[in-house]
Amino acid sequence: MDVVKPRWSSSSFLLYAGAFVVLASATAAYVYLSSQFGDAAFAGWTLLMLVVLAALAVGLRNRGPWIAAGLFAYLTVAAFGTFVGSLFSWWGWGGTRDTDVFDGWHWVTWLLVVLILVAATLALVLYRFPLLVLTIAVLVWYLVTDVVSGGGSWSAVVTLAFGFLYLLLGVVSNRVYGFWLHVAAGLLVGGALLYWWHSSTLDWWLLFAAGLVFISIGRVTHRSSWTVLGALGMVGAATHFSIDWTNGGVAFFQHREARVWAPIVVFAVLGFLFVALGLREPAPE
What is the Rg, in whole angstroms, of the alpha carbon atoms belonging to the chain? Predict the structure, then answer.
């Protein structure tokens, strides 16, 4: 089976919406069942849900739309992770995490992540569903970052390195799979920068400039995910400046009264800047 790019349509929207509503419902069911039953019974319930979702994925793969089959394969991977995690809890393999998510040694978590990675990779081979690439990319980043770093700035450095690695892989990889590698790259690079730059006014100006760089990367790579993330970063910076300048947080705005016009001006300027950047893009045919 060749790798196919999902096409936007009413049907594909409803399939994605339905699958993620099922995922939300399953998550709520896990929370409810874990509060009502012991570890052994909860493991049994998660196994039942895993079997049902896997059966639906296989059935749709043989006779249904490929997007539906891929979505239920995606849900099956999530259910598999929950089932294995419930087994570990039943066996007493749980444990408290440190305050920093990457601080310390987490053997059980690493084993769980590896098993989910195997399941996601197998599902990708069988179903060729691109969204699974994002799951694999995030799990690999998390596993390596947790193993080699102990939190703080070093984890941010590793995250930034993974972002650039995924950017490179996204450029040279299959066009369809590359989309999700670019999404992972943008999220990791942006997350690392936000970790470092979120306190001072200079930090927010740097994030605003990073947003412009993201948009430039999107133009060069022809990947709109970079443009979307860059625009979101610029909106975040504009929101910070709006709040700061409304309350007189800048020397030339010092005044006892709030300047309610500041957000209007800031977002008007940002809007015109987006339009100017958009006009540089080639018009869609």
Answer: 22
Q: How far apart are the first and last CA of the chain?
A: 30
- Largest Cα–Cα distance in the chain? 69
Measured CA to CA, the distance from residue 238 to residue 64 in angstroms comes to 46
Q: Which residues in 211-249 are b (16+ Cβ under 10 Å) and which e?
A: beebbebbbebebebbbebbbebbebbbebbbebbbebe
Tens digit of each residue's pLDDT (9 = 90 or more) over 76-96: 999 999 999 999 999 988 755
pLDDT in tens, 244-256: 888 765 554 455 5
Q: 189 with 164: CB under 8 angstroms?
A: yes
> CA angle at residue 207 from 206 to 213, to 5 degrees?
90
Query: Which residue in 192, 226, 215 sits closest to 270, CA to CA?
Result: 215
- CA dist 57 and 78 (Å) reads 13
Token readout for 32 is 């409810």
